[in-house]
Amino acid sequence: MESAKFIEERIKDFKPELAIILGSGLGELADEYCDIAVPYSEIPGFLSSTVKGHKGRLVFAEIEGKKVVMMQGRNHFYEGHSLKEITYPIKVLKQLGVKNIILTNAAGGVNENFKPGDLMIITDHINFMGQNPLTGANDETMGERFPDMTEVYKTKLVELAKSCAKGLGIEIQQGVYLANSGPSYETPAEIRMARMFGADAVGMSTVPEAIVANYCGMNVMGISCISNAASTAGGEKLSHEEVIETTNKAKVKFKKLILEIIKNI
Ligand code: HPA
């Protein structure tokens, strides 16, 4: 409540309906569309962002006639924060009146048909982080103790994203995102396991945020930018630089898709 009140004082009568969390290399949208920016470091209760390639601020902008709040940069579990800490902003966004949330990330491609630079609509997830952000006492005013998880990534939003991509002539993939805690990338054996489990992409974010957003009644859409083929025995070595480089190449396509989704959501 204190965090939301602080933000409301900064944004006055701007009432965001849609939130977008911008993942690695995808933060530029918030540089181009920025009416009001509030650094995380100034918001009571927020952690500051520390990862290279991630800024740390909330950016408010009217885009395509919609009131949007963007998280330019996010905190990760692998930085040493708890899942509760990294998902705190989601609850604050809910408090600000956000109904729909688009979670974006860079992810490794597990599905062998995926190419680096592809965009994947997330249809479902596997939480392999070993923890859940909702453990501990439950605040009944936010959501239920045992939230249903049958349709976290709303089918109508998956369909919307697909039809927007089609309209723009952007090739789009869809699939299941598996979240590991990181920070180490996966071994080839772990990728074979992820594939057997039915995952199409792997990453180190998004799932805790999706769990909390779903819990507090938001409609979730997820989009991964496939930044690399996940590790295989005898394959190329993987670096964070490669992840950033590929997402940078895909960002024009990504931005176009996001703008089209904002227009039609
Ligand atoms: N694994 C985990 N996280 C990632 C990857 C990956 O291959 N690429 C980008 N984020």
Could you please describe the fold and organization of this structure?
The protein is an alpha/beta fold and 265 residues long. It has helices at residues 2-11, 29-32, 83-95, 155-168, 188-196, 207-215, 240-264; strands spanning 18-22, 36-39, 57-63, 66-72, 100-109, 119-127, 172-179, 201-203, 219-229. The protein is built from 7 helices and 9 strands. It has a 5-stranded mixed β-barrel. A hairpin with a 2-residue loop joins strand 3 (57-63) and strand 4 (66-72). Helix 3 (83-95) crosses helix 6 (207-215) and helix 4 crosses helix 7 (240-264). The structure holds hypoxanthine (HPA). Hypoxanthine is lined by residues 106-108, 185-186, 202-204, 227-228, 230, 238, 243.
Number of strands: 9
Largest sheet: 5 strands, mixed, barrel
Average of per-residue pLDDT values:
93
Anisotropy-based shape: globular
The hetero compounds bound to this protein are: hypoxanthine
Strand portion: 15-25%
- Show unreliable segments: none
- Treating each run of at least 4 consecutive H or I residues as one helix, how many helices? 7
**Approximate helicity band:** 25-40%
Taking the alpha carbons of the first and last residues, their distance comes to 27 Å
N to C succession of SSEs: HEHEEEHEEHEHEHEH
Q: Would you tell me the structural class of the helices and strands?
A: alpha/beta
Strand numbers in spatial order across the main sheet: 5-8-7-6-9
Determine Rg (CA atoms, Å).
Answer: 17 Å
